Amino acid sequence: MDSDASSTCSRSSSPELAVDSSFFSNKVFQAYCTDRETGQPRSEKPSQNTGSGGKSRARADLCKDDMQDLRLKVNGRERKRMHDLNQAMDGLREVMPYAQGPSVRKLSKISTLVLARNYILMLSSSLEEMKKLVGDVYGASGQSHSARRVLPPTSAAPASQLQLLSLAPSLHSLVGSTSQHTIMPTLGQTPHSPPLAGYLGFPAPPLPTLLKDPLHLSSGYRHFPGMPCPCSLCQPLPASTASLHNLSMGK
DNA sequence: TAGGCCATCTGGTCCT
DNA sequence: AGGACCAGATGGCCTA
Q: Which DSSP letter does residue A225 get?
């Protein structure tokens, strides 16, 4: 699916749930029916059932039509389950800091999961650093009873926002600001790009390393300025985010 | 053409 | 007993 070139999902990950003719034309199903007709085992793999009166035995008592109906029901449920899983995966992709759009290849499932994991780790790390910085700010201004003396208001923005803006450079340096991927939020975003950290008032953190992990992900991703890419060309790991790499998935 | 990714079917297992 | 979950098998589509 993600390998589609003409579109992001010429083969939808969540096709319409329907037991249509495609199922009945399916070779597996045809083989299934054939085997039922001949009474031969459909697979070389012997049944693990010990004949202790389980479902298999009950199914053996069913007539062919009942068996077929049951199989259709089970297949439909499994299909729906997988579609729900794919929907959840799509929902995860939507919130990931990765270029999205009709001309961008969809992240594979494994890439989505790896990216999500590392993204969470990066956010957690950023949050911790932010807490430290906030603590430092309030700690330094403790004698003056107000952070406003440290951060004189220069606009109508709330004090909290001003403090956030003042912390932005530090936060940004935490995640690395020298990457070629760094760009002002209004410059490099595609119409379908998800919001990055631009809403915080500082350049979006480079996130190409979010997918840095022992897995070798396939290349062929489209490159967008300012957008992270899981391909091998976009894997330089800023020293400030090296800790994330150290937390990579252990397999 | 090989490899990656995916959807689907299927049987087994576990849970309610 | 029925449904959810899981993993293996299979085949299709796409890209390098």
A: T
Nearest to A230 by CA among A106, A89, A94: A106
Banded model confidence at residue A236, pLDDT cuts 50, 70, 90: very low
Q: Which residue has the tokens 């399916």?
A: A26
* Cα–Cα distance for residue pair A58/A231, rounded to 1 Å: 51
A3 in Cβ contact with A76 (< 8 Å): no
How high is the pLDDT of residue A85? 86
Give the global pTM: 0.51
Strand C within 7 A of A5 CB: yes
Measured CA to C1', the nucleotide nearest A220 is: C15
d(CA A60, CA A39): 11
Strand B contacting residues by CB (7 Å): A 1-3, 11-15, 19, 23, 26, 28-29, 32, 42-43, 47-49, 54-56, 71, 74-76, 78-79, 82-83, 86, 106, 108-111, 217-218
Say how far apart CA A66 and CA A71 lie, in whole Å.
Answer: 8
> Strand B positions with any atom < 7 Å from protein CB?
3-13
Q: Give CA–CA dist A184/A189, Å, rounded.
A: 9
Furthest C-alpha separation in chain A? 89
pLDDT in tens, A76-99: 888 888 888 888 888 888 888 776
What tokens does A75 get?
A: 């297949």
Tell me which protein residue sits closest to nucleotide B7, measuring alpha carbon to C1'.
A13
Q: Are A1 and A13 a contacting pair, CB within 8 Å?
A: yes
